[in-house]
Structure formats: structure tokens, C-alpha cells
Amino acid sequence: MPTIAVVNQKGGSGKTTTVINLGAALALEGAKVLVVDLDPQGSASSWLGCEETESDRGIWDVLVNQKSLRSVVEPTPVKGVELARFSSFLVGLDVALASQPGKGTRLRDAISDLTDPGWDYILVDCPPTLGMATINALAAAERALVTVEAHVLALRGVAQLWQTLETVRERLNPSLGIAGILICRFDARTRHAKEIRASLVERFGNLVLPTVIRENVRLAECPSFHQSIHQYAPRCTGSEDYRKLAEQLAQKD
Amino acid sequence: MPTIAVVNQKGGSGKTTTVINLGAALALEGAKVLVVDLDPQGSASSWLGCEETESDRGIWDVLVNQKSLRSVVEPTPVKGVELARFSSFLVGLDVALASQPGKGTRLRDAISDLTDPGWDYILVDCPPTLGMATINALAAAERALVTVEAHVLALRGVAQLWQTLETVRERLNPSLGIAGILICRFDARTRHAKEIRASLVERFGNLVLPTVIRENVRLAECPSFHQSIHQYAPRCTGSEDYRKLAEQLAQKD
Ligand SMILES: Nc1ncnc2c1ncn2[C@@H]1O[C@H](COP(=O)(O)OP(=O)(O)OP(=O)(O)O)[C@@H](O)[C@H]1O
Ligand SMILES: Nc1ncnc2c1ncn2[C@@H]1O[C@H](COP(=O)(O)OP(=O)(O)OP(=O)(O)O)[C@@H](O)[C@H]1O
Ligand SMILES: [Mg+2]
Ligand SMILES: [Mg+2]
User: Fold this and answer.
1) What region does B208 belong to: left with phi over 0, alpha with psi -120 to 50, or beta?
2) What is the pLDDT of residues A198-253, one digit of tens each?
3) Does A164 touch chain B (CB under 8 A)?
């Protein structure tokens, strides 16, 4: 069951927008998708209409108290997509796990403990840091999908991330692959975006996915309606781009 | 000596772009500005051409080993602006400070220890988290400047941040004020941006600064040249907006 970690410690690179809309596009093709929200901001959870409750701590209990993953999964308004909800407690995850055994593989253990998973894909939305949430996601993943905005400030993050991927491969997950580098919020009208895309291709070759996600305000609007882009505006470029991406990633499986 | 913490745990909200270009605009008016880079990504440091070195850990040594602030300050290519450089070690700051006394006020102590500071402003660039780096910045600041992109996904972060500001005010810094909510990457062509701005004004009133920073690709280009927007493209809207912001914030002092 392919688990994809959507990562980049650079903030605002398009991680949450990709998890929700790629997940929904895979579901349109008939796949069953689980979204795991590891971000203390809870953008993915709130997009899917699932706010935190007083009593249960969602994915936090799975990582810190080794509760079963299935016990925190809930349905969402996006057909074919289920969610393991965030908790604002995740802001203290690094300290909570600091002296715990197996702190880097809690999510992987929870996934492998599932007797009959029932999902075709697990997409993990990561926070904009390289702390224990992102480490757990990378240790559990078959592949990392790196989202990047085509701006020079974003290039630095990709180089730093590569070192982290290498470290996780050496210590926790030797088979961690790369699904690709996904350029988000691409504005083809600007020379700058084209130059940055060219320098990513020069440096990372065909790891840079041929599909880019174009800047499209519909993608910024749809979270308020707790819908994926395919429900909200199925004929816009945002929907087209994420459906193309889903086709591409599904082929690689 | 006014210290302003530029904060928002939502990634990509415009924190680094604001610290560098606001700082440079204040310097154009004759002020001496210190930029403190608390982000393990080091975007502000790399923008200013100051990469980390093998031997010294920049601001990390100030927060964790209580080294003097002045000992880590270096010049930058932007006239009137000096820098306390980041360190990639900052990624582990929460764990490093977890059991240390006064962990929330290390930066404030370092600033108050300065005999003759010599700066008119200290601008602190925060990472996209609500961990110990942001707590230290808020505990040291007279005012918090909250950067926001005018997208619905960003609204949630502002509400969460407000709770953190309240907690810091109660426990660490009773006089923490708000410099304002600064809308960044504003694209007036979209209805969505106008709607989000209106809902921010409805909720936060005149805390929303009248100056907005318009989307302008020049702002995304200038980091590659280690220049502020005022050096790179002094007649573009990005430079105009940040100079207007500087005038506005300087008046409030
Ligand atoms: N292709 C796109 N076109 C227009 N807006 C987009 C696009 N992709 C993302 N956005 C918007 O850009 C902002 C950043 O995207 P998003 O929040 O998904 O990034 P992120 O990497 O998850 O951020 P964080 O680091 O805070 O978790 C959001 O306001 C989102 O609505
Ligand atoms: N007004 C603007 N017009 C165009 N691009 C902008 C503008 N402000 C910021 N950007 C670009 O948007 C991206 C996010 O901005 P920036 O990195 O300053 O935000 P941040 O809050 O510091 O991000 P992080 O959460 O990763 O620290 C960057 O690629 C930057 O170049
Ligand atoms: Mg996100
Ligand atoms: Mg930044």
C-alpha cells in the first residue's frame, strides 16, 4: 500500500493543497485514500471539515501513546478520502518523543500493525519543519513527494531536504524513494518561475515531475467550502493539473 | 530600542520577505537595524549572503550557550542592516531548551545584556512554527508583526497565533503589543483576496494595517542578488509598499 510523504520544510510550498487535491484525484480513479495530517496547524483537517475535539487527540495518540491508527480514522466530505486528524498538541511532538524508543518509526509501526488496511494510498501532510513529524512521515513512506514554489527562496530548502532524505534512508528507511519534485503555484507569465524551473531540472533532472501545478485562485478558494478542487471547479486548470499528476503517480506504482 | 517579532506559523506568509525589505526601508530613513534570523532554514541569512560556518553557530550559541548577542553580529550587503545569523542546529532548539531554566527569555536576556546596543530596530525573523524560537522572539519583542497571505487557508493560523500571543503576554511579556496584521502577496485582481482582507478587517479591525504588500515578482527575484527590493528595483510596487510600511511603523514609535 503506497505511502507518500508530501514534504518540504519551506513554508507555503503547496503541501496541503497537494495532499487534498491529489488524494481526491486518486479517489476519482476509484482508489481508497487515507490522508494523515501531521501538521499542528491542521490545514488538511480543517479543509476536510474535521476540527479537533476536547477529548481525542487524533494522530497524536497514535504517535505518542501508540493507539491504533484505525481508531483515529474518520470519514470526510471528499468521496473516497478518509482522514487521521491532526492535534494542536503536535506542536510539542519533538519534546514528547525526545527520549522515547523508536521515536522515528511510530507512524510506520502503526501502519504495519494494520491487519486489513483497506486503503490504496496513504498521503501524509507534513508541517514546514524537519522535526519528528516529518521524520516519522519519511520513515513510513515508500516515496517522498517534494512540493516547491518556483521562487529562488525555495531552492535552498530543497538542498537541505535532500540531506534529510539521505539521513532517513541511512538510519530508518533504506527503501525511501522519490516520487518527484512537484512545482506548485507556477506562474508561466514570469521569467523568474521559468528560470527556477530550469535550474531545478538542471540540478535534479527527471526527478522534477513534468506536470506542474499552475497558479490558480480556485485552488485557494476551495478550502472554504470543504471541497477538493474537483468538486469545487472541475474544469479549472487546478483540477486538470492534479488529475494529470494522479495519473502520472498511479502509473509509477 | 523597538524589537519587532515578525511571526506566523503558517508557512510562506511573507515573514522573511518582510524582515529584509522592511529592515532595509527603515535603514533608508537613517535607522540602524539588526536582523535576527531564528529560522533553521536560514532564508534571511542566505538572502543577506551570510551562510553558516563549520565553527560558529550564530544565534544558536546565544540562545543555548548564552553567548553575547554582539559576538554573533555581522555586517550585510544592505546598508544600515546587520545580522545575527541562523544555524541549522535551530531545528533541535525545542529539545535543547526543554529542561533549561528561563528557556523562553534567552533572547530577551541577550538583548537586555547589551551595554550600548547601537541599533534603532531589531527585527526577528521567525520560523513557521510555534516552538521555542517564536516564543523567544515574542518574549523579547515590544510588538509582533503578523504577516498573512490573503487566502482562506491562512485565516486559521491567525486565530491560533492569537492564542499564543495571549499566553506569551500572560506568562512572559505583559507589554507585548501588536504592530499590526500585514497582508502580503496581495493580488487585487482576485475576488478571493478582497474577501479575505474584508474578513480580516471585520475580525481584527484597525489591527489590519492599511498598507498591503502587493504581489510583485521583483520581490521573489531580489534574494538571488543578495539585495533588498530597494537596491534591486527601487521603482517597483514592492519597494513602494515596504517603504510605506516603514513610514507607518516608524510613526507608531
Ligand atoms: N496552485 C496554486 N494556485 C494558487 N494558490 C495556491 C496554489 N497552491 C497553493 N496555493 C495557496 O498557497 C498557499 C500555500 O499553500 P499550502 O498551504 O497548501 O502550502 P503548505 O506547504 O501546505 O504550507 P505550510 O508550510 O503552511 O504547511 C495557500 O494559501 C494555498 O491556498
Ligand atoms: N509580495 C510578494 N510578491 C511576490 N512574491 C512574494 C511576495 N512576498 C513573498 N513572496 C514570495 O513568496 C514566498 C514566501 O515568502 P517568504 O519566504 O518571505 O515567507 P515566509 O513566511 O518567510 O516563509 P517560511 O514560512 O518558509 O519562513 C517566497 O518565495 C517569496 O519570494
Ligand atoms: Mg500545509
Ligand atoms: Mg521565512
Assistant:
1) beta
2) 999 999 999 999 999 999 999 999 999 999 999 999 999 999 999 999 999 997 76
3) no
Give SS3 for B81.
Answer: strand
| C-alpha span between B43 and A10 (Å, rounded) | 9
The DSSP string of A9-48 is SSTTSSHHHHHHHHHHHHHHTT--EEEEE--TT-HHHHHT
pLDDT-based confidence at A22, cuts 50/70/90? very high
Cβ distance of A129 and B91 shorter than 8 Å: yes
Helical packing angle, A237-251 and A15-28, nearest 10°: 70
Separation CA A251–CA B87 (nearest Å): 40
For residue B150, pLDDT beyond 80: yes
Distance of alpha carbon A8 from alpha carbon B3, whole angstroms: 30
Residues with CB under 6 A from ligand 1: A 11-17, 39, 43, 128, 184-185, 213, 215-217, 219-220, 238; B 10-12, 128, 149, 151, 153-154
A167 to chain B, any CB pair closer than 8 A? The answer is no
Q: Choosing among A129, A132, A158, which should be mutated to test the B contact, i.e. which has the most B CBs within 10 A? A: A129
Percent of chain B, pLDDT > 90? 95
Residues with Cβ within 8 Å of B3's Cβ and at least 6 positions away in sequence, in order, are B111, B121, B122, B123, B124, B140, B141, B142, B143
Number of residues assigned to chain B: 253
Residue type, B19: V
Cα B40 to Cα B87, B89, B177: the distances in Å are: 6, 7, 26
Instruction: Please give the order of strands across the beta sheet that includes B33-37.
Output: B73-75, B81-84, B33-37, B121-125, B3-7, B143-149, B177-184
> How many residues can be counted in chain A?
253
What are the pLDDT digits (tens) for A47-84?
Answer: 999 999 888 899 999 999 999 999 999 999 999 999 99
Partners of A29 in the β-ladder: none
- Coil, strand or helix at B149: strand
pLDDT at A101 over 80: yes
Predicted confidence (pLDDT) per residue in A27-37, tens digit: 999 999 999 99
Distance CA A239, CA A224 (A): 16
Instruction: Indicate the residue of B46, B131, B149 with minimum beta-carbon distance to A156.
Output: B46
Q: Would you state the pLDDT for residue A102? A: 95
